Amino acid sequence: MSKTADPLAGLIDSQELRRQLTALTVPYDGDGSDMRVRAEALSLLKAAMRQAREVAEKRLFEDGGGTLCARRLSHVQDEVIRVIYDYALHHVYRVKNPSAAERMAVVAVGGYGRGTLAPGSDVDLLFLLPYKQTPWGEQVVEYILYMLWDLGLKVGHATRNVEECLRLSRSDMTIRTAVLEARFIWGDKALFADMVRRFDTEVVAGSGPEFIAAKLAERDERHRRQGTSRYLVEPNVKEGKGGLRDLNTLFWISKYFYRVRSGAGLIKAGVFSRADYQRFKKGEDFLWAVRCHLHFLTGRAEERLSFDVQREIAVRLGYTQHPGMKDVERFMKHYFLVAKDVGDLTRIFCAALEEQHAKAPQPLSRLIGQLTGRNRRRRLVKGFPEFVIDNGRLNLASESAFEKDPVNLIRLFALAERHSAMLHPEMLKRVRRSLKLIGPKMREDPEANRLFLQVLTSRSDPETLLRKMNETGVLGRFLPDFGKVVAMMQFSMYHHYTVDEHLIRSIGVLGEIERGEAGDDHPLATDLIRTIQNRKVLFVAMLLHDIAKGRPEDHSIAGARIARRLCRRLGLSASETDTVAWLVEHHLDMSTIAQSRDLSDRKTIEDFARVVQSLERLKLLLIFTVADIRAVGPNVFNGWKGQLLRTLYYETEPLLSGGHSQAPHSQRVAAAKAELAEALASWEPEAREAYLERHYPAYWLRVPLERKLADAQMIREADAAATGFASRVVAHAFEEVTEITVLAADHPKLLSTIAGACFVAGANIVDAQIDTTTDGYALDTIFISRELPRDDDELRRGERICTLIEKALRGQERLPDSVARKAAARGRMKAFRIEAEVLVNNSWSNRHTVLEVSGLDRPGLLFDLTRAISGLNLNINSAHIATFGERVVDVFYVTDLTGQKIGNIGRQEAIRTRLCEAVDGEEGEEPGRRRPRRTSAV
């Protein structure tokens, strides 16, 4: 199709459709009410609509025009409604001499009224009457609606006369907006014109401020429901912040207040420049393309860009993979840049609303005065005559302030922080249009870098200032490396925000910790941040820690290199630069070790201490890690992760602070036994001495006294009952986990049985410690994620799990069948492809071989892994389960049946093969049938 051709041509031939429908009624003397005729008419209409939609989708692939596609679909819908209306009037409910009351206009309202329609959108109609409803009108409306419903359309409708439309518009803002967007489709055009004329004079006139306030409040509430950030990684294309509805809101206000009929009218009204309007059109076209593809792909009115459709939408839009970035990540980066543009256009629009009408007393100015609670006041900023405080907001005193001194583009944020002033929308608009002034010379300017560091390390609210700096484009221009991660999305369920939004949020969390606003959740981090020697390095490292995301190399190593370069530019000393670079390079270490290593294993602590090297770095890394995890997304950080981090800190601190050296192994075991013996003083001496000999040394060294006492009591009661099974449930509210301890006869599949029972019960295991007694019993303690707020409810849940474990051990419950039924659906994980990887490592522990298994998480995975490990005749000493969105990292400390490490290369290879098969859901098939692609041993 040529560019000059009508883009709506060739979609549907309404004249031919009318001819075919008329031909259907000839044998029935022109009566179209016969059910057989109606069924044939419906078949013709369905075929015409299906063919038209196929053409529209094909053209969307060919020209990529999202707005065009929406217009095409709206045009098709218009034609179908016109044909049905004419058919109803001429062949079904004919009136030879219609009265004045027997008139009707079919009107499109809502999104359909704008002449745009997505494949799955509702069709919102207003049947407009001159007076009250008549039997004829009721029949025609009913016939049209039933035809549309039978075509499979979702139709929203109202039947009103002109007076009702006007009366309801005055009292209901939703109806007022619908009438504002009303568009004539068919019928009595004079009736529609009368409504529009009266609506403009009787409803719209003089009510602009009221409408604006209502629409902006409605927008804010919608943002609150959808998520206040426009950088959520599964955005809602229609309702989310930066989506189509935000552009609709601008258009509603424009049409209502400025009385323009198209986006181009905003240029004449002085609201948008021509460049701004082009951004408006490009953003709208892109969002419509995404939305139409989304509806076509899913076959329904799906508005959320969830992970399971993002990759396919990226392919449909023609995105390809680049080094360091997947096709889907490039597509989503484009999406978030458009969402950012929508936010920028909203600020420009609001600035124009205020500025244009503040100069001359208008109703809007009075509204703004009411909202701010004060009259318009302007005063120069002392020492900086280029700036004024305007109604409590920082603004420019001179339009040439940035051209005279580009450093003002950074200074304005420092002044806003100093004066606790918001930024005036008009100034933000000028900032956006002055970004070209930020070049190499300004980036190296010492004053600009000093001011930026002042903003970054502000003790008040650096997050808000940095977000404004980012939204205006200043941050990405001043730090080009940061600019590369602006709007960058990681195709991962773990990360809730784009990279730049995560970095800015992490600064905000760091500020909360420093101000003591997160003490209940992070007591250790809150205490430590008051003792660190240099807070500056913490804030700089936090801003830069993910700055190298999207590159082919490891982002931690590349980020450290970038940090060294930027720190020098920002004026940091050599030692400060070293600390920042070290934090960036090792920012994942503490989280990884805490969640996936045995913290009771001395080798783990020693290895970590060698990496950290100093107590000051340990403090910095602990605070950094807490803030980083917190900023990933809601509920990612929990009490259990906090407890693991605290344990790692407290175990490492003595090695770095020059405290006492570790006592000999035998001496520590003896001390632990003596401590418990003293606590069990009420026991008979013979029973107490016999009990102390039932545990191996590992138990004495890693289990806290409180749990040892509980274990002793449980084992004693189990001996007396002679049941061979006992269990205990303890709820830990602060850590957000529930502890389940099971005593049972030892056998290799015990942990697998526990894992299966937990899975069937819907419990998520986060850690497990396995101990055996000298008389052949296993004492397994697992920690599951807490689900219920009340302790008593959580305890009952834990007891139900214990009952299921007991039934499985006694053969009353076939776990493999139950697990298979529960795991039948993989759900959203299908969107991801993660290659299974198994690491067999003999250097991480002095006593155990460590198996690190990573891959795509799925229902029942832990059950399959533990079953495979028991089938390999390995003893599991501890298990540590970490999930990062769709990716799971399960770590097992194991020995062979003689208690030795696995040193044989051939056996290591068999372990890797079997566990890779288990990750892929192939456990139990013939070993070696499918070789893993990524395996390694250390």
UniProtKB/TrEMBL annotation:
One of its GO terms (biological process) is regulation of nitrogen utilization. Pfam families: ACT, GlnD_UR_UTase, HD, NTP_transf_2. The gene is glnD. It comes from Stappia taiwanensis. It comes from the Bacteria. This is Bifunctional uridylyltransferase/uridylyl-removing enzyme. Gene3D superfamilies: 3.30.70.260, Beta Polymerase, domain 2, cca-adding enzyme, domain 2. Modifies, by uridylylation and deuridylylation, the PII regulatory proteins (GlnB and homologs), in response to the nitrogen status of the cell that GlnD senses through the glutamine level. Under low glutamine levels, catalyzes the conversion of the PII proteins and UTP to PII-UMP and PPi, while under higher glutamine levels, GlnD hydrolyzes PII-UMP to PII and UMP (deuridylylation). Thus, controls uridylylation state and activity of the PII proteins, and plays an important role in the regulation of nitrogen metabolism. NCBIfam families: PRK05092.1 (NF003467), UTase_glnD (TIGR01693).
